[in-house]
Each structure stands twice: as C-alpha cells, then as structure tokens.
Amino acid sequence: MTPLDAVQIPFVGGYDQLDLSDVMTSLSPTAIVASNDLLALGVIGALKREGLSVPGDVSVAGFDGITIGRLIDPPLTTIEMPDASMGATAASLLLDMAENAAPARHLDVAYVLRRGGTVRAI
Questions:
Q1: Which of 10, 25, 42, 56 has its Cβ near the most Cβ atoms within 10 Å?
Q2: Does domain 15-82+109-114 have CATH number 3.40.50.720?
C-alpha cells in the first residue's frame, strides 16, 4: 500500500469545530499527523464525533509536545522539540540572511518522539 499525499484540512473557528467527514469518506486514512498538538487533539475529537476510535480505527500524532497531550487518555503521541532553541535557531538564521545575505539553508534541530497511546502498533 502506498502512502496518501499530504492533505491540508481547512477549518474555521476553534479546534472543537473541525469536520473530517469529507476526508474520512473520500480518503479513509488510517493515520493523521497534525502540524501541532492542539490540532491533533481537535482531530481526535472530530474522529470521535464520526464514531471512530483512536487508535483503533485511526492513529493520530501531533507535533510540539505540549503538556495537555499527556493529560488525555490515551496520552497523545507527539514529536517534542525544544521551543526555545528552535526559536533562537530560526531567529539566528533570519538575521544571518538579512544582515549578511547568507543563503537559505537546512538545519537539523533535536527532537524526541514521545510515544503515547494514540498510534496503533502495526
């Protein structure tokens, strides 16, 4: 099975108003990786409103490792990144580009996968 292309899911309003019904009907994904943990929590709520279980029907992971992700049941699987060092690194790169005409470049920033219970073992 080949992975689906990334799909951007637009939403208006709060995370609690996220509607995944069209995406679930048309694509039937088995996993959703949200761009941040708050959105991942909104995805979990939307999936539950669709009558789906996490991770039984759909695995969900977030990105940034906020504390509230550890307070849900099951805890959110997420990628933790050190916010302060990520912000300082981005600011340093931007200043270098603006002040010294440095070329854009790719940097690796440390991260940790915090396994929770929202991703199914396959």
A1: 42
A2: no
